Amino acid sequence: MKIAFAASSADDAQAARRALSERYGDVPLAEADVIVALGGDGFMLHTLHDTQNLSAPVYGMNRGTIGFLMNVYCAEELEQRLLDAEEAVINPLVMKATHADGRTSRALALNEVALLREGPQAAKLRISVDGRVRMQELVCDGALVATPAGSTAYNYSAHGPILPIEADVLALTAMAAFRPRRWRGALLPKTAKVRFDVLEFQKRPVMADADGKSYRDVVSVEITSDPSIEHRILFDPGHGLEERLINEQFT
């Protein structure tokens, strides 16, 4: 088995990479049968984005502070763990943002695409789904669209629902909604095309964020799921994404 190791800049992650590389070898990413990511969830997302054009699945081992997408770190019997691992396939969100100066930005997100106020005043957003305006004005600190895999991240912190990994739905969740008061969001089909238009954008500037990558001064954002792009993630048996999502709701 040809393994490629990737590690975050943290000392623990770098030390783990050196030890594992000496023990199991370390091939270039493009030649790997499996990619092992060493770090936390943020680094796992970074690795998945960087390797999305490669066919090898990614197996994460936790050498960071948060490890929802990671397996327990252990240097022993790694090859057998990789052979026994369960696979989850995730389709990312595609974000197309239009900026106030007319520029457009495109990004992929495995967890969520969020719109967040940039200044002291609340954002005003108009929400359309599949070309139909569903909410004329949402006054809030922000709003996001999350995948099932990302539903336990920012979405859950904003009191959005945890979604089963196999669910063909997306969560649309508001952050600190002021009007409509305490509006909590909606569940949408995975095929839905969501559009946010930023109202009064000069007075109430808004930024868009796709898995931690920010785009400032946006006036509209369109979000869709792309089934043609597949990210393959490996988990130890009995500790896959489905089990983790269920367990999270009883913690």
Explained architecture:
The protein is an alpha+beta fold and 251 residues long. It folds into two domains: 107 residues, Probable inorganic polyphosphate/atp-NAD kinase, domain 1 (Rossmann fold), CATH 3.40.50.10330; 133 residues, Probable inorganic polyphosphate/atp-NAD kinase, domain 2 (Tumour Suppressor Smad4, Sandwich). It has five helices and 17 strands. The strands form three sheets. A six-stranded antiparallel sheet has the order 6-5-16-13-8-9, with no helix packed on it. A six-stranded antiparallel sheet has the order 12-11-10-7-14-15, with no helix packed on it. The longest helix has 14 residues. The radius of gyration is 19 Å and the shape is elongated. The model has no long low-confidence stretch (mean pLDDT 94).
CATH-level-2 architecture of the largest domain: Sandwich
Q: Write the CATH fold name of the largest domain.
A: Tumour Suppressor Smad4
- Poorly predicted runs are none
Beta-strand residue percentage: 35-45%
The coarse silhouette is: elongated
Looking at the chains present, what oligomeric state does this protein adopt?
A: single chain
Helicity level:
10-25%
Largest sheet: 6 strands, antiparallel
**Sheet/helix structural class:** alpha+beta
Describe the SSE topology.
Layout: E1 3-7, H1 11-24, E2 34-39, H2 41-50, E3 58-62, H3 78-84, E4 86-90, E5 93-99, E6 104-109, E7 112-117, E8 123-129, E9 132-140, E10 142-146, H4 154-157, E11 169-175, E12 186-189, E13 194-199, E14 206-210, E15 213-215, E16 218-225, E17 231-235, H5 241-248
Parallel strand pairs: 1-2, 2-3, 3-17
Antiparallel strand pairs: 4-17, 5-6, 5-16, 7-10, 7-14, 8-9, 8-13, 10-11, 11-12, 13-16, 14-15
